[in-house]
Write a structure and sequence with these properties.
The complex is a heterodimer of chains A (about 600) and B (about 80).
Chain A lengths: L9 H14 L9 E7 L4 H14 L4 E5 L5 H6 L4 H5 L3 E5 L16 H20 L6 E5 L20 H15 L4 E4 L1 H8 L1 H4 L2 H7 L8 H15 L6 E4 L10 H4 L11 H18 L3 E7 L2 H10 L10 E7 L3 H12 L6 E4 L3 H10 L4 E2 L9 H7 L10 H6 L4 H12 L3 H7 L2 E7 L5 H10 L12 H8 L4 E9 L4 E12 L4 E8 L8 H16 L3 E6 L11 H4 L3 E5 L5 E6 L11 E3 L7
Helix pairs in contact in A: 1-2, 2-10, 5-6, 20-21
Chain B lengths: L2 H13 L20 H15 L5 H5 L4 H13 L2
Classes of the chains: A alpha/beta (about 600), B mainly alpha (about 80).
């Protein structure tokens, strides 16, 4: 468990909310944002805490109107209700499993019957949503699957069990939610906090509380974060320290191999675990910045040279390593990235640095970093810093891991003619018999490729070694590079020959380089070999698998002739080699100088 | 400090009012802000302070502050 000194109890929160309401001088003022809370249980305590929290978080007057106990149906369906008169900007709906559990499917219901029961529940909510003007944002709690399970472990084994049914309702709500409905993940929250405690039947029976009062702060915080996000009050950038934050030790003293990152040690593993989580954040669109007191060259070196680093320089949008104070550096980072300091989150193991940043940039979220490294991830997660209302394609592109890919795509769209695009890629390939040191990678690709794989015959490294030494077999590799990246070994071909026949035993290619003309280049090479060896034809075979439909007509498209087909779908092909045979034009330049045969 | 004095501290804390004086015969009608939500907070705060847990029946039988004090004392004796 992560120590969290700042966590307040439900009673403290209720007290602060009460104080706020009592001293609020602005009650007569027209609110800027109107929020209404409707629930299947008592929601008064949620509403008052929510109003207090929102007004401390957002620099606007926010009013939260409570619909009282069991207020969803009458408010939404009755056109003369408090809800329709109030016209809230945001409606918080807190329904409960009990609302629909009587409609759960019968035991031994078929899949179709379960589906229909789920649909009925979701149709009800769809009808409810339709009654609310679409300009109103609806925050609706999903359903917490109760931990009273009459069927025991079988709950998880029958599609018609109540647990399965409720989970299915949650999933279907997700499928059917219109853009103005955002689900509040109560199911996850309850699981994380502990369902045995979440469900407090005494509190429900006595006061109609929907969940244990102990978890009021967490629930209100979840709702508050979503509402704050509507005001654009979201964090976009994670600013990280380096030494003892993303690796152990001081790179300036310990050197790039002296820092602790080795996954074979518990400490190294802890830092790597944190880096992996940070990389996940980056992949979902969080901008990463480094703010470290270091010589820049020292600071960059582990990214370039330590093999255990998970974060790469390309993942970092702004790298600030110098000896200035961190508050100033964070402001500089904000300028470089053209974002506000209020959208930044600071993560640093040093409490003194955190204190300075908190003091000089109070808008910046400073994460309370625990002493235990293994808890870094949880501390960052529990800061709930990046709880956005939605994720767009632009969010991901902003920090795209595949910056080069993005550029490649935009290059493609700027050409009207695909050939021009291929030409502009400036592809350079090497094709030839494999070298001994390529055997591991060659066999790896052979065992991994499923889609662009004509026969899907797997060979171990030892078997490839044997083929490598067999004069009647040729293992051919293709490596490719273009303007943007080194793709490395991307295609494997194995040819077998005897006195009368040249047979393509294996032909596979990495899907990363589809539609680049690599196959045309390869055929050109094979035909040339065949001619040199004096063959009049090349034979080949397609063996269908579940995954290789992509190359079903591959040989036909290259000009091969179908010779035979077995009942299982294996197709034999041949290609006559004569002077009229023309291979397709491609746009790949060859580099053959280091060929070894 | 006896139970009623400790309970008075809880009342003052929950109601955020240091002027409150409680007595045995006092009921929810005697304090303007004593609504159901405040009632729950009083019970939870008392449970926390005395490290006890009230049953549903015990809570429902409370008629006035005197009952509340007696209940706390009973729970403390049987702890």
């Amino acid at each position: 468990m992560v120590e969290n000194s700042q966590k307040i109890t439900a009673l403290e929160l209720l007290k602060m909310a009460r104080k706020y309401t009592k001293n609020d001088q602005t009650t007569s003022q027209t609110p800027d944002i109107k929020v209404m809370v409707l629930g299947s249980y008592s929601t008064q305590y949620i509403s008052s805490c929510l109003e207090y929290l929102l007004n401390t978080q957002i620099d606007k007057k926010i009013e939260v109107l409570d619909g009282q106990y069991n207020s969803i149906l009458n408010n939404v369906l009755d056109e003369n209700s408090q809800l329709h008169a109030y016209e809230p900007d945001i409606l918080v709906l807190l329904p409960d499993v009990e609302d629909f559990i009587n409609y759960a499917p019968e035991k031994f219901s078929t899949d179709a019957q379960v589906k229909s029961a789920v649909q009925k529940v979701v149709d009800f909510y769809k009808a409810l949503w339709a009654k609310i003007p679409s300009k109103c944002l609806i925050l609706q709690a999903n359903f917490v699957v109760p931990n009273l399970r009459a069927l025991g472990n079988l709950e998880a084994n029958y599609i018609w069990s109540k647990s399965s049914f409720i989970s299915a309702v949650n999933l279907e709500l997700l499928h059917k939610r219109p853009s103005n409905v955002l689900l509040l993940d109560f199911e996850q929250l309850a699981s994380a906090l502990g369902k045995n405690k979440w469900f407090d039947y005494q509190a429900y029976n006595m006061y109609k509380f929907g969940f244990s009062l102990d978890f009021l702060p967490e629930v209100v915080d979840l709702i508050q974060r979503q509402i704050s996000a509507t005001r654009g009050a979201t964090k976009k950038c994670l600013v990280l320290d380096l030494d003892n934050t993303i690796w152990g030790g001081i790179v300036g003293d310990d050197g790039i191999d002296g820092i602790e990152l080795d996954p074979h040690t518990p400490v190294g593993e802890s830092y790597r675990h944190f880096q992996k989580y940070v990389l996940e954040l980056k992949k979902r669109g969080v901008i990463l910045a480094i703010c470290s007191k270091n010589d820049e060259e020292n600071a960059r070196e582990p990214f370039e040279k330590n093999k255990y680093m998970i974060l790469q320089l390309a993942d970092i949008s702004c790298f600030m390593a110098n000896w200035d104070d961190k508050a100033n550096n964070i402001k500089k980072i904000a300028d470089v990235l053209n974002i506000g300091v209020d959208s930044m989150v600071f993560f640093d193991d040093n409490p003194a640095e955190r204190c300075i940043v908190q003091k000089f940039i109070p808008e910046c979220l400073v994460v309370d970093v625990p002493k235990e490294i293994a808890d870094y991830t949880r501390a960052l997660e529990d800061a709930h810093a990046f709880d956005w209302l939605q994720l767009t394609a632009e969010d991901l592109n902003r920090t795209s891991n595949y910056a080069a890919n993005t550029e490649r795509v935009s290059l493609a769209t700027s050409f009207t003619n695909y050939a021009d695009y291929l030409d502009a890629l400036q592809m350079v390939a090497h094709i030839g018999q494999i070298k001994h040191e390529q055997i591991p990678r060659f066999s790896q690709l052979i065992n991994k490729s499923n889609q662009f794989n004509l026969r899907t015959i797997r060979y171990t490294e030892a078997e490839i070694e044997k083929l490598y030494n067999n004069n009647a077999v040729h293992c051919i590799e293709i490596t490719l590079a273009d303007k943007f990246s080194e793709h490395g070994l991307i295609s494997c071909i194995i040819l077998r020959r005897n006195d009368t026949e040249l047979f393509i035993d294996t032909w596979l290619m990495s899907c990363r380089v589809l539609k680049r003309g690599v196959e045309d280049l390869a055929l050109e090479y094979i035909v040339e070999l065949a001619k040199n060896w004096g063959f009049k034809q090349i034979s080949a075979e397609y063996i269908p698998t579940k995954k290789n439909k992509m190359v079903l007509n591959f040989y036909q498209e290259l000009g091969f002739e179908k010779v035979d087909e077995t009942p299982t779908g294996n197709v034999y092909y041949k290609l006559e080699i004569n002077d009229e045979l023309e291979t397709k034009k491609h746009y790949i330049k060859l580099r053959r100088k280091d060929e070894h045969d | 400090m006896n139970t009623i004095n400790k309970l008075q501290d809880i009342f003052r804390d929950v109601f955020d009012d240091d002027e409150i004086e409680i007595n045995q015969d006092m009921t929810a009608n005697d304090l303007e802000d004593w609504d159901s939500l405040m009632h729950i907070q009083l019970l939870v705060a008392a449970e926390e302070k005395f490290s006890i847990k009230f049953s549903t029946a015990e809570v429902l039988n409370l008629k006035n502050v005197g009952d509340f004090v007696a209940l706390i004392d009973k729970k403390l004796e049987n702890k």
